[in-house]
Amino acid sequence: MSHQVLIIEDDPALIRGLTDNFEHSGYTVHHASNGDSACEMALALRPDLILLDIMLPGKNGYQICRELRREGFGIPIVMLTAKSEESDLVRGFDLGADDYVTKPFGIRELLVRCEALLRRSAAEKGGGGSETPFGTFILDQKSHQLRGQGGDPVELSPREYDLLAFFVNHPDRALSRDQIMNAVWGYGSNVTPRTIDRFVTGLRKKIETDPKRPLHITTVREIGYTFRP
């Protein structure tokens, strides 16, 4: 069965190019050109992957990404945009985007990134991960969920989950920002050390009693971070 991809883009030429290349690679392609109808289509189709332009008629890509994540939509979202400022990338990742491709982009690179995201998503859904306790939390890598005291779920974006899972699976080790970037975002990604620091700050707010004096994710000066259960 082929993967289904939803392309949310309003440029007819780009839609044709993406459709042709993804169909040639074996995908079933759907597309929406208006931000106002994109969320409804995504929730109805439940595709395996979304390619999401930021500048759209109606709702923009940031709004769409936020709404889908709030609805518990956990599939990979790749943002397509002409913007390349780090603040724009960080905003997209903060809202739950899994990757960020700046126009103009190479179609082969985009396909490789999408395939990697789909492999990771499939492994997370079908993997046999175990429950890993730390502090007052339990990370359930089978259900892809973080639970706090009393079993209450803690809301994490897909990228926050990936980052926390990487830390949990590599405890008591000094992890460089490059190691973290390559493991969580993948080789050749557009993220910077500052982006990683922003995500760590966000995670600390969710798992540390005092985020300014963290016990679990501690900074290793001039290297990166260490996770302590």
Question: Can you describe what's shown?
Answer:
The chain is of the alpha/beta class and 229 residues long. It has 2 domains: 4-125, Rossmann fold (3-Layer(aba) Sandwich); 128-227, Winged helix-like DNA-binding domain superfamily/Winged helix DNA-binding domain (Arc Repressor Mutant, subunit A, Orthogonal Bundle). The protein is 43% helix and 21% strand. The protein has 8 helices and 12 strands. The chain has helices spanning 12-24, 35-45, 61-70, 86-94, 107-126, 158-169, 177-185, 193-207; strands at 4-8, 28-32, 49-53, 77-81, 99-102, 131-134, 137-140, 145-147, 153-154, 175-176, 217-220, 224-227. The strands form 3 sheets. The chain has a 5-stranded parallel sheet with strand order 2-1-3-4-5, with helices on both faces. It has a 4-stranded antiparallel sheet with strand order 6-7-8-9, covered by helices on one side. α6 (158-169) packs across α7. The relative contact order is 0.10.
Give helix % range: 40-55%
Q: Structural class of the secondary structure composition?
A: alpha/beta
Which residues sit in consecutive blocks of at least 5 with pLDDT less than 50?
none
N to C succession of SSEs: EHEHEHEHEHEEEEHEHHEE
What's the rounded overall pLDDT mean? 87
Beta fraction: 15-25%
Architecture per CATH nomenclature, i.e. the level-2 architecture of the largest domain: 3-Layer(aba) Sandwich
Shape: globular
Enumerate how many helices there are, as a single number.
8
CATH class of the largest domain: Alpha Beta
- Cα Rg: 18 Å
The CATH topology of the largest domain comes to Rossmann fold
Which oligomeric form is depicted?
single chain
**Major sheet details:** 5 strands, parallel
| CATH homologous superfamily (4th level) name of the largest domain | Response regulator
Main sheet: strand order = 2-1-3-4-5
Question: What is the number of strand segments?
Answer: 12
Number of domains: 2
